[in-house]
Amino acid sequence: MIYDVTDLDVYNRSVEAPNLVYQLEKQVPQSHFKLKIQITSSAESVPALIAEGFGKRRSDKEWKRFLEMALGSSDETITHARTCKVLSKHFSTIDCDLCDKIAEEYKIISKQLNNLRNKWIDYGKKRTI
After folding, report:
1. Nearest-5° Cα angle at 17, 50 to 120
2. What integer is the mean pLDDT of 73-90?
3. What's the confidence (pLDDT) of residue 129?
4. % pLDDT > 90, the chain
């Protein structure tokens, strides 16, 4: 049974994942400040959206909406990591392997979010029957 947002594996994983992003953010040159802000912002918003949605889960529609926004932020983080990998061709300070590691971690988070969303939708349908 799920009593608290910390009972969700995807939440716990998404709380830890920004640590990788913070490492990468330090490697991105200041000339790409906007990218640094965007990747940290998208990574940090994933667990925040899950938590906010969990608090509103009494409404299946609201919970689903927050999971979808978290999924969007996770996918955005993947895109920013890929952008950083492209930048690594021009800036030796950026670690390509770290970019790949971040993209892979957030792919897992995105899959978990999608699975949770689909299971919750199925659960909601069963409750209304």
Report:
1. 30
2. 97
3. 32
4. 81
- For residue 97, with 0-12 CB atoms within 10 Å meaning exposed, 13-18 middle and 19 or more buried, which class applies? exposed
pLDDT tens track for 3-55: 899 999 999 999 999 999 999 999 999 999 999 999 999 999 999 999 999 98
Q: Is the dihedral of CA 57, 60, 61, 67 positive or negative?
A: positive
CA-CA-CA-CA dihedral for 95, 96, 101, 102, to nearest 10: 80
Q: Are 53 and 63 in contact (CB under 8 A)?
A: yes
Cα distances (Å, whole numbers) of residue 8 to 47, 65, 91, 99, 115? 11, 17, 38, 26, 12
Q: Is 46 exposed, middle or buried (0-12, 13-18, 19+ CB in 10 A)?
A: buried
Question: What sign for the dihedral angle of Cα 43, 44, 47, 48?
Answer: negative
In whole angstroms, how large is the CA radius of gyration of the chain?
16
Please list, in sequence order, all residues whose beta carbon lies within 8 angstroms of the beta carbon of residue 54, skipping any fewer than 6 positions away. 5, 8, 11, 63, 66
> Could you tell me the two tokens for 61?
């529609």
